[in-house]
Structures are given as C-alpha cells and as structure tokens.
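Thread: "does anyone have the structure for this chain?"

Original post by V.I.:
We have the sequence but no experimental structure in hand. Need at least a predicted one for the grant figures.
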Amino acid sequence: MKVNSTTIDFRPNVSRVLNRPFIPTDPGRVSRVINRVLSFTEAEAEAQLASLRTEFDAGHPKAKRCYAWSFTEGKQTRFVTVLEIPPVESAQTAVRAAIASEAKK
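Reply from O.Q.:
Generated one for you, tokens below.
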C-alpha cells in the first residue's frame, strides 16, 4: 500500500462534537463521578450546566436539542443520539426516528 503525506491536519473541534458518552471500565469510577456530581453546590451545578450549554450550543446550527439514551442489547450497551431537527420535534419522534433508521440498516 502506498501512503501519501498531505497538508491536511485533523484537529479536535467542539463544533463537530454531538456527544461524548461516558463508558467507564472501572465500577469505582462510576461511584466517584456520581459522588462528585452529588457534592456540587447549587452554584457549581449551575456553572457546569452553563459550560455544557455553551459547548453544545456551538455544536450544530439547526439542532435545538440532542436526545440521547442507552439500552442493553444482549451483553452490549448501545448508545443512541438524535438531533432535534424537523421532523424530530420531541423525545417521542426522536425514538421513532432512531427505530426507523435502525430498520433501514
């Protein structure tokens, strides 16, 4: 296989991030994260929420929300995300869109 070098340089860009699923491999880490979040003061929780909103507001010019959920299929946990872009207008239509998309595969 011949490999050619180019000047293209891929860098992380928050505008391309839709979600970052948290998939821990250590059960202790889950407990530490939950305990840390539960220890937030009201002001800290508001600051974290504002930070997330700022990060995700820049993520997609047309999407108002991103619906996300997970489910277990056999021994595997699957994660689903659907942007709120018409015809998706609610959590219910997001689930319908995900099911329709999966059926097409």
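V.I.: this helps a lot. Residues 14-59 form one domain.
O.Q.: and The helical segments are 27-38, 42-57, 91-104.
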